[in-house]
Amino acid sequence: MENQINGIHHITAIAGKAKRNVDFYTKTLGLHLVKKTVNFDDPNTYHLYYGDKVGTPGTILTFFPWEGITAGRRGARQVTEIGYSVPENSLDFWLKRLEDHNVIYNKVSEKFGEQYLSLLDPDGLKLELTVAKKQDNRLPWETDEIKAENALKGFHNITITTNKMQPTADVLTGVLGYRLLEQHVNRYRFINDNVDNANIVDLVEVAGEVAGHVAGGSVHHVAFRVKDEKTLMEYRDRVEKLGLHITDKIDRNYFYSLYFREPGGVLFEIATDNPGFAVDESVEELGTHLMLPAQYEVQRNQIEQVLPSLV
């Protein structure tokens, strides 16, 4: 875990109606609302974090829910699929649950020897529930309706659709510590061996694919995980030496971040494990309060009046 990339830290996407987003991810999929805060650049919009009990990196899916936003379009230069790891023999449970909750899904399929079930969230974001070949021992968040034998454990993989895979592959292997694991037709699977989970990136190369449009139901960025700020800044130097523009270190309250756009057009982030989500709420109370960045605390009353109800 020292001085290296340790797989995926979090993924951030865009939604429309905030309450609909909360209901789907906490009730239908059974994730834990770990943090309820606001967008640093738009404090009248929520920033919602879902994950396991404590918000372990590799389990965190976050959303900017902008009410009334237009629908995005999947295409090239995008993260087009988010894969979750689910337990063995759980796909029948999920097929029934998705059917009962009127969720759009496809029949169970297989890639790289792993069964998976694909579905769309209410905004059209494509998710996959995958039974990983390698046993996943992470402890999931449980609800009254979704127990550990079926619950989502955290990320398994992401898929990036690209017109030309090699420049993106060069960043994955040359900077982020991934290696090519296997290939099937135009899908290339890369893995990071520093961790056991949330460590797979698939590149799908489609030369003629039109660029997607990032809006509702789209992934905004994917963050890769490092231990601490010292390691973060070492990676800043490595990215900068490639000639790619990378931001200065940004304090996101629960982690420190750098952002850069990889050559294929996807926004990458590198984020630290520290300080974590319990820095301003106890573990038992995570996600139960509206937590504001310090600069917006003086506007709390105004912000609370503008934000839509989540109940």
Topology:
Layout: E1 8-15, H1 18-28, E2 32-39, E3 42-51, E4 60-65, E5 78-85, H2 91-100, E6 109-111, E7 114-120, E8 126-130, E9 154-162, H3 165-174, E10 178-184, E11 187-192, E12 200-205, E13 219-226, H4 229-241, E14 250-251, E15 255-261, E16 267-275, H5 300-306
CATH architecture: Roll
- What fold name goes in the CATH topology slot? 2,3-Dihydroxybiphenyl 1,2-Dioxygenase, domain 1
Strand order of the largest sheet: 2-3-4-1-13-16-15-14
Fourth-tier CATH superfamily name: 2,3-Dihydroxybiphenyl 1,2-Dioxygenase, domain 1
Structural class: alpha+beta
pLDDT averaged residue by residue: 97
Helix-strand string: EHEEEEHEEEEHEEEEHEEEH
Apparent shape = globular
Radius of gyration: 18 Å
Low-confidence stretches: none
- Helix percentage: 10-25%
Count of domains: 1
Task: Kindly estimate the percentage of residues that lie in beta strands according to DSSP.
Answer: 35-45%
Highest CATH level, the class: Alpha Beta
Q: Total strand count, please?
A: 16
Structural write-up:
This protein has 311 residues and is an alpha+beta fold. The chain is 16% helix and 35% strand. The chain has helices spanning 18-28, 91-100, 165-174, 229-241, 300-306, and strands at residues 8-15, 32-39, 42-51, 60-65, 78-85, 109-111, 114-120, 126-130, 154-162, 178-184, 187-192, 200-205, 219-226, 250-251, 255-261, 267-275. The radius of gyration is 18 Å and the shape is globular. The termini are far apart. The mean pLDDT is 97.
